[in-house]
Write a structure and sequence with these properties.
This protein is mainly alpha-helical. The chain has one domain. It has eight helices and no strands. Helix 1 packs across helix 8 and helix 6 packs antiparallel against helix 7. The longest helix has 23 residues.
């Protein structure tokens, strides 16, 4: 049953991303679009997304080695992407610009690319290079669908 919900959720996120791209008159390649769907699926139930301090998580990732470091940097890049694209009010509340999350996330993805090999490194290099486009796509998504926000974090958005 969860596979059906996962599949349906993936199809819904993909449709919303494609609608957002059409609204913007923009395009992402298949790997970028698929990765955005993956990020949205992976974090759609993250009740702590808005409470995390990404700079501290980035510092913690730097202290790691190997795949643990790479996974932690990917997570920072993903979360910064979601905050910058879907919850820009959080940046204002924390007295930083959205660009803070964009720069931190782009750097995290570049760290994954630098540590990776072959297709994985290539994907993250491309994601780092088009981070602004990914954020703009999620900002367009934000305009298309109401986003569920845990009650505990509702004040963080205002």
């Amino acid at each position: 049953m969860s596979g059906i919900r996962q599949g349906a959720a993936a199809a819904l996120w993909q449709a919303v991303i494609r609608e957002a791209l059409a609204t913007r008159g923009a395009e992402l390649d298949e790997s970028q679009e698929s990765y955005l769907v993956f990020v949205l699926l992976r974090h759609q139930r993250d009740a702590h997304l808005l409470a995390r301090i990404q700079a501290l998580e980035w510092l913690d990732a730097q202290a790691q080695a190997g795949s643990v470091r790479t996974d932690a940097l990917r997570d920072v890049g993903d979360r910064c992407l979601l905050v910058a694209g879907l919850f820009p009010a959080l940046a204002r509340r924390r007295r930083v610009g959205v660009e803070y999350f964009v720069d931190l996330g782009r750097g995290a993805y570049q760290g994954v690319a630098d540590a990776g090999r072959d297709a994985y490194a290539e994907l993250f290099a491309r994601l780092a290079g088009t981070y602004d486009e990914l954020v703009a796509t999620l900002q367009a998504v934000r305009g298309l669908v109401p986003l569920p926000v845990p009650i505990a974090h509702a004040r963080a958005l205002h």
